[in-house]
Fold this protein.
Amino acid sequence: MPKYCVILPAAGSSSRFGGKTHLKKPFVSLKNQPVWLYSAQKFRERSDVAQIIVVISEEDEEFFKVKFSSNLAVMDIALVIGGKERTDSVRNALEKVSDECDFVAVHDAARPCLQSEWIDDVFEQAGKSGAAILASPIVGTIKKVDSNKRISQTVSRDGLWQAQTPQVFEKQLLTNAYKIYSGPATDDSQVVESSGHPVDIVYCPNTNIKITTQSDLRLAENILRSAPKKDALSEFSQRPNRNTPSLDDLFG
């Protein structure tokens, strides 16, 4: 059985999140548990995950260790200090990946609604091709606008997908891609794509949301609340031809 290292980047500035507590989005409470811990627990329960690394900014190190030291110890989670850009943070984490690991999965620490079935699917596909990410097809009408916020073009949504995480890669492939990549990137797939290696898409419903604003907390809470009811979300989660519920279906 191949072994996986999971990197959870949590070093961003959370500039769009706001809120009264001034906590960054991975650290805020969601149903009485910090956001980042949901995904960490989901990965820790898997026998094929040999290592979990959480990446935080230097300014959050003292707070994180005081607040979550028991979680780190009990769950055997390593802590790495990130850099200015996401690519810097992942690059720092890659230096700490265990030799035991064959693959590396990068998952947003602020994406707490992950389901086991989705991990199964993307791990399986990455094992076949070396590189795979979760994503959902874009179903809305896409408008390109100019600097005055006027529509300049209606863009065809054919072939357009919204990238999600986990994004899973053969360890040496990802490491080599980061060695030659320069500049920022919004996800790790972009780094691997730039190396010339193809990356496969694995369907996932759009309920695998990332917490970006305060209103996303309410959406995430409702998603998590609905999941235990016969695992309501995961039963729709594997193939695009199923009647997958959208956020509008769930929340009206």
Remarks:
- Residues 4-133+164-251 form a domain with the Spore Coat Polysaccharide Biosynthesis Protein SpsA; Chain A fold (CATH 3.90.550.10).
